[in-house]
Write a structure and sequence with these properties.
The complex is a heterodimer of chains A (212) and B (254).
Chain A lengths: L11 H10 L7 H13 L2 H16 L2 E2 L6 E2 L5 H4 L4 E8 L2 H10 L4 E5 L17 H10 L5 E4 L5 H17 L4 E4 L15 H9 L4 H4 L1
Chain B lengths: L8 E15 L3 E8 L3 E7 L18 E8 L4 E10 L8 H16 L8 H14 L5 H16 L20 E4 L4 E3 L11 E3 L1 H12 L2 H4 L6 H19 L4 H9 L1
Parallel strand pairs in B: 3-5
Antiparallel strand pairs in B: 1-2, 1-4, 2-3, 4-5, 6-7, 6-8
The chains are: A alpha/beta (212), B alpha+beta (254).
């Protein structure tokens, strides 16, 4: 389908908005058109609020000096929270993963965001993500006892976890390094599980009394 | 009136996953190398969700049986069966890094919709061998050189690329731009040459002419293999006109 923005009758301002919206991930030409036309129906205040919010995230949000998560201050709310366990750090790929883990309420330690995973085929090596910052943080803080590596469960995530493990084993031998357990997702049928998942689920099986 | 609907084309093929990147909210685009269609790029819908039935069956560096619905712009992965996950290989970071390197090389030397069974079989053979092979450095060099043979890019190793005369046994220069060896007498100061000793040239010729079962029995000097690594890196960069990204990672974890 030819996007409407290509038609000459469209006012340039609307056409420009459609093209700008298309820069966002998951927004195709049709969705961009729908959003642009919806914006036309909104009040000036509402549109102003949206545009100001968009600008704010670029001007006000920085990276936390300690955990590299997005924050409005030099140190994020999680890092300055004294109630959280400073001896355990959970390493995640993206800031979004922090919010997913926080929502579960199961983790009370602190985080470290790598902002990606090692993907040599796509030109992303260990120097392109924030592994160096993690190593410096561990070396500077002797109270850290455990690192939980919560990178994604694909080959890039696994390679990242292995690389961190290799570097940390060389630098700080007493550190406990753990990886998130792998297995069947809640509510799924074993019938549809793949061999790799079954293999890991059997390997990480737990005593029924401990799991209940 | 009956509405006209274009008939969808389906393809079922064995393939090796070369590359993966996230697409949209929960989708992924997979670059597959197949013997019958060369490179195929296909989107797997919702594969990043934990409950996806396809997610565990497909990942980079795995051999799969893929069922693809061919689209005009982008094809759709409708079903996948895992043939080999290379799970033992994936437990070692150095083997993963070699695997990434082999995959990237195959992607550089393959094109979309161009059947190339030889490249597919070459990659499949090397991945199967990677775990059991003791000399991974030799396997990597043999893979690179024979990939060049299959693709028709093998550098000229017997005649001088400037004078056209036959090269006599001895040290010579390797010129990536000229596509092979150059007699030292005819070298110009402008070209970026790599000096190759007699043994490295012999090793290069032997690797390009022989199958793995013969190659693995030979004990090549380490400095010859190191020289071949430098020569191959430069030459592949020149002919593909791009950097081999995974080479940097390979050097880092070696």
């Amino acid at each position: 389908m030819t996007p409407l923005s290509n038609f000459q009758f469209m006012p340039p301002a609307l056409s420009k908005l459609i093209e700008s919206l298309r820069l966002l991930p998951g927004i195709g030409p049709k969705t961009a058109q729908k959003l642009a036309f919806s914006t036309l129906k909104m009040s000036t205040e509402q549109v102003k609020e949206i545009s100001e919010s968009l600008l704010d995230i670029k001007t006000q949000i920085i990276y936390c000096e300690s955990c590299q998560n997005i924050s409005e201050n030099t140190n994020c709310n999680i890092c300055i929270d004294d109630k959280r366990d400073s001896s355990i750090i959970c390493v995640v790929e993206e800031s979004m993963d922090v919010y997913v883990l926080e929502k579960s309420g199961a983790f009370k330690g602190k985080f470290h965001v790598l902002h990606g995973s090692i993907s040599p085929v796509n030109g992303i090596g260990p120097d392109e993500i924030r592994i160096k910052e993690l190593i410096n943080r561990i070396n500077d803080k002797p109270e850290i006892e455990e690192i939980v590596i919560a990178t994604n469960l694909n080959l890039e995530g696994e390679a990242t976890a292995m690389y961190i493990n290799q570097v940390l084993n060389n630098s700080k031998s007493k550190l406990k390094i753990t990886r998130l357990a792998r297995g069947l997702p809640s509510g799924s049928d074993i019938e549809y599980a793949d061999d790799t998942t079954i293999l890991h689920a059997l390997g990480s099986r737990v005593n029924i009394n401990e799991s209940l | 009136m009956k509405a006209y609907r274009k008939k969808k084309k389906y393809l079922q093929t064995e393939s090796i996953v070369l590359k993966v990147y996230d697409f949209g909210e929960a989708d992924r685009i997979f670059t597959l190398l197949s013997p019958s269609n060369g490179i195929i790029r296909a989107v797997a819908k919702g594969v990043r969700k934990p409950k996806s039935r396809m997610g565990g069956h497909i990942d980079i560096l795995s051999k799969v049986n893929a069922y693809i619905s061919i689209g005009e712009n982008l094809s759709n992965l409708s079903q996948v069966e895992m043939i080999d996950n290379y799970s033992l290989l994936k437990k070692d970071l150095s083997m993963i890094s070699i695997g990434f390197y082999l995959l990237e090389l195959c992607e550089k030397f393959s094109v979309e919709n161009d059947p190339n069974n030889d490249i597919y079989q070459h990659l499949s053979f090397a991945l199967d061998l990677l775990l059991s092979c003791d000399n991974k450095n030799l396997l990597t060099r043999w893979f690179e050189i024979n990939l060049l043979v299959i693709s028709g890019f093998l550098p000229e190793l017997y005649t001088c690329q400037i004078s056209g005369t036959e090269l006599i046994e001895g040290d010579h220069l390797f010129s990536s731009i000229n596509g092979g060896l150059v007699d030292k007498k005819f070298a110009t100061s402008t070209d970026n040459y790599i000096l190759m000793d007699k043994n490295s040239i012999k090793a290069l010729r032997f690797l390009s002419n022989n199958l793995w079962d013969k190659v693995e029995k030979i004990n090549f000097p380490k400095n010859s293999l190191d020289k071949l690594r430098i020569v191959m890196r430069k030459y592949i960069q020149t002919i593909t006109n791009s950097q081999i990204n995974s080479e940097k990672f390979l050097s880092k974890v070696r």
